[in-house]
Write a structure and sequence with these properties.
By secondary structure, the protein is an alpha/beta fold. The chain has 19 helices and 15 strands. A six-stranded antiparallel sheet has the order 2-1-4-5-6-7, covered by helices on one side. Strands 8-12-13-3-14-15 form a six-stranded mixed sheet. The chain has a three-stranded antiparallel sheet with strand order 9-10-11. Strand 6 (87-91) and strand 7 (94-96) form a beta hairpin. Helix 8 runs antiparallel to helix 10 (243-272). The chain is elongated and about 145 Å long. The mean pLDDT is 84.
């Protein structure tokens, strides 16, 4: 139940608060006063997307708050819409997504406006209406899941079959590539080591000559650096008792020892330096094979190994493709069978359930002064199965005796659509704690028909909270709670307000609706009689 609604800076509403009651709530007022804006504000509260156009002129943001009670729970929904187009949503003062607010709104409220009545003209909506009437929405939801699963399976199967067309050639190529990489037994850092060794082999003789000359100068012969340092040590030895001389002698000795180590390293290098044309050729051949691998599979060792790993994974996938295709084909066949069975079962239940639904809607329409009408739900096989099943559904109607049945969407008037929608809602029933909001359900009707519509709305209010905007006094007289929306002007600004009517105020508003701007004693008396008539009809059940 919607207990409280607050609207601030929305369209022409600066600030408005209203407390709704249980049962039937009617909202009336002059044309253009802003009655439907209140419903639009409530609708914006629960829409996933809303426009910045609703923000009142010269203000920064619009704000709508709704306080609901539903199944022992209490929910305060709030929506702030900024002039820049951004919006924020709150549930019990905690930030939530707009989609979460919209999802909860669908649970709490159904809004039936002129657009909702018009959906009776949309053939695509008939499946949902019929399945709601027959309580088949759950079964259709399962069918939707299975049809979507079948489509995914078909798409995957077709993709794998297409891949399998060139599978043998791709497998042969990948196996060759993996074998080529494995055959070379490439090691990390190998290329750098080979390049270094190749440089040494190419210049071995030159390097040996240079090393030999360096060795002679450092160590060999009377004039070598090593011999000079040893002589220096000998000359300083007699004065080693002097601390500074001893330290100098130790430094010269250290350098002498270093020269010995360097000479040993030079000698070792010389021994290993031989120009071996055969080894050099093998090195260059190995480097060439490495360059070939790099040109095909990656610029680095890591790139080549990564390519090999990917190729192996692809090979495993391709080699199991036949098994996958076989499994998917079996899965597809099973899903096709299940989808057909479920579609057949759903169709059978629809066909078997239409007659009592047709009778109930005809009886309800007869009560709403559409006597002699024939209403029929036509179901034919459309030849394919989709999320809605196999049925092509058409609502057929004959509004006059003897006339052939024709599609409802082609011949129904606005007033007829309003009553048919109300009749369908009356037959469906549904969640008794859900609030039903009717925005101008009185379109295209008047007189006795309006009185009957009002009575049916009051009947609906026995099991639901009903809120209805109406221009007709015949409907307004049946309200448990009557609210007046009016428009005022203050310093060039338009403002919309709402107040609850009772007693003489309610009689005066009904009189205005009956007689227009001039209210006479007769119209006031007539308004009182209508209230008495409505109460008498309710209490006596006619």
């Amino acid at each position: 139940m919607l207990a409280f609604l607050r609207v601030k800076d929305f369209a022409i509403i600066d600030e408005l608060q209203v407390e709704f009651g249980e049962g039937f709530n009617v909202i009336t007022g002059e044309t253009g006063a802003g009655k439907s804006i209140i419903i639009n504000a409530l609708s914006s509260l629960m829409k996933a997307k809303t426009s910045a156009d609703v923000v009142r002129a010269n203000t920064d943001q619009a704000e709508v708050t709704g306080h609901f009670f539903y199944k022992d729970g209490e929910y305060i929904l709030r929506r702030i819409i900024s002039a820049s187009g951004k919006s924020r949503a709150f549930l019990n003062d905690n930030p939530v997504s707009a989609s979460r607010l919209a999802e909860l709104g669908d649970t709490l409220v159904n809004i039936y406006g002129q657009n909702e009545f018009q959906y009776l003209l949309n053939k695509e909506s008939y499946v949902g209406i019929l399945d709601s009437l027959l309580s088949l929405n759950g079964e259709r939801s399962v069918l939707v899941e299975k049809v979507q699963a079948l489509r995914r399976c078909e798409a995957e199967l077709n993709g794998k079959r297409k891949e399998a067309e060139g599978r043998e050639k791709e497998i042969a190529l990948l196996e060759f590539q993996v074998e080529e990489i494995d055959r070379e037994k490439l090691k990390e850092g190998e290329e750098e080591d080979l390049k270094e060794r190749a440089k040494i082999l190419k210049d071995a003789e030159k390097i040996r000559g240079v090393l030999h000359a360096i060795g002679e100068g450092l160590y060999e012969g009377e004039d070598s650096a090593h011999m000079s340092f040893r002589k220096s040590v000998g000359l300083l030895k007699p004065f080693s008792s002097i601390e500074t001389v001893e330290k100098l002698k130790e430094r010269i000795e250290t350098v002498s020892f270093d020269i010995e180590d360097i000479f040993a390293q030079i000698s070792d290098m010389e021994k290993g330096l031989f120009c071996d044309p055969e080894e050099l050729q093998k090195l260059e051949e190995r480097l060439f094979r490495i360059y070939e691998l790099k040109s095909k599979y990656g610029k680095t060792y890591q790139d080549i190994r990564q390519y090999e790993e990917s190729a192996n994974q692809r090979l495993v996938y391709l080699k199991t493709l036949s098994t996958d295709i076989s499994g998917l084909a079996i899965q597809k066949a099973a899903l096709e069978h299940e989808v057909k069975e479920r579609a057949d079962d759903l169709s059978e239940k629809r066909r078997g359930g239409t007659e009592p639904i047709e009778r109930a809607i005809v009886d309800e329409l007869a009560f709403l002064s559409m006597k002699g009408i024939v209403f029929q739900i036509g179901i034919t096989d459309k030849g394919t199965i989709d999320e809605n099943g196999k049925d092509d559904i058409e609502f057929l109607i004959s509004t006059n005796p003897g006339e052939p049945l024709k599609p409802l969407r082609r011949i129904a008037s606005g007033g007829e659509l309003s009553r048919i929608m109300l009749a369908i809602k009356r037959v469906i029933g549904g969640d008794e704690e859900k609030t039903l909001i009717f925005d101008e359900v009185d379109a295209g009707i008047g007189g006795k028909v309006a009185d009957l519509v009002g009575r049916r709305l009051r009947d609906l209010a026995d099991t639901h909270q009903v809120i209805s905007i109406t221009h007709l006094p015949q409907i307004a007289t049946y309200g448990n709670h009557h609210f007046l929306v009016d428009k005022s002007y203050d310093q060039g600004t338009t403002r919309t307000g709402i107040k609850k009517l009772s007693g003489s105020e309610r009689v005066a508003e009904l009189a205005r609706m009956l007689g227009g701007a001039t209210i006479t004693e007769k119209t006031l008396q007539r308004a009182e009689e209508m209230i008495h008539h409505a109460e008498k009809g309710i209490h006596q059940g006619y």
